[in-house]
Design goal:
heterodimer; A: 127 residues; mainly alpha; 3 helical TM bundles of succinate and fumarate reductases; 5 helices; 77% helix; B: 131 residues; 0% strand; elongated
Chain lengths: 127, 131
């Protein structure tokens, strides 16, 4: 492994000086996951039923819509950080780069899809 | 000389040497539930949102799959993974402050986390099914 020398950094080894940011954002998104997912869990339990009409009416309201938007962004960000650690721990060959690119594409693509669906519902374009 | 030294050098103990303890179990449980949810729970979340955005017909398809036996198994698994990951995640946030590293305290918290995860899962589905 690189020890942080110039050539080590060129090869992508050694410290990238981004570890603390990754660690902190993982914690921040953990807290926002806690708030938003518990909001979803409690909402699902409080809704009279989970029929299409009921759920669409619920998710189109401002507070649920915003909380669901935040939930999607927070959970996908947190999952992206967690899966990065998984790849770093278990994949040490050239596949690591491929998996990292795939992870970023999937995380951003998934989050944008979720955000788009909620915005579409909240702005009434589903009717 | 170098060769003989390399061959006979004592190896540091690895995973299989240690006797399993609650802290090791809750550690790998946190990783498994978290990375499992990254695929299963976020997948179901996107399917749910996509089905809602798609209209009544696509939502009906989603509901019929999720209320099948396999669907319920997936949903119960996701809720168990969430509540387990939440309790062990809260443990991590407390450990991050530097608290809870005394051996007995650490063991107790590690034992409590997976139990809380199961209890919250049972409570959630009890409310869903009994109301």
């Amino acid at each position: 492994m690189g020890n942080g020398t110039s050539i080590g950094r060129v090869r992508g080894l050694g410290s990238a000086k981004g570890g603390v940011h990754h660690w902190l954002v993982h914690r921040f998104t953990a807290i926002s996951n806690l708030l938003t997912v518990l909001f979803l869990v409690v909402s699902l339990l409080l809704l009279p039923d989970l029929s299409y009409a009921t759920v669409v009416e619920w998710i189109a309201r401002p507070v649920p819509a915003v909380m669901m938007l935040l939930l999607v962004v927070s959970t996908f960000w947190h999952a992206r950080l967690g899966l990065q650690v998984l790849i770093e721990d278990y994949v040490h060959d050239a596949n690591k780069l491929v998996l990292m690119i795939a992870l970023n594409l999937a995380a951003i693509g998934g989050a944008v899809f979720g955000v788009f669906c909620i915005v579409r519902l909240a702005l009434g374009a589903h009717a | 000389m170098a060769n003989a030294g390399t061959k006979n050098r004592p190896l540091s103990p690895h995973l299989q040497i240690w006797k399993w303890g609650p802290h090791m179990f809750v550690s790998i449980l946190h990783r498994v539930t978290g990375d499992g949810m990254a695929f299963a729970a976020l997948g179901v979340l996107l399917w749910w949102l996509g089905a809602l955005a798609g209209g009544p017909a696509s939502y009906a398809t989603f509901v019929s799959v999720m209320t099948s036996p396999i669907g319920y198994l997936v949903l119960v698994g996701i809720t168990w993974a969430f509540f387990s990951h939440m309790s062990s995640g809260l443990r991590h946030l407390v450990l991050d402050t530097g608290a809870g590293y005394e051996l007995s305290v650490n063991k107790t918290w590690a034992l409590i986390c997976p139990i809380v995860g199961v209890l919250l899962t049972v409570a959630f589905w009890a409310i869903v099914l009994l109301r």
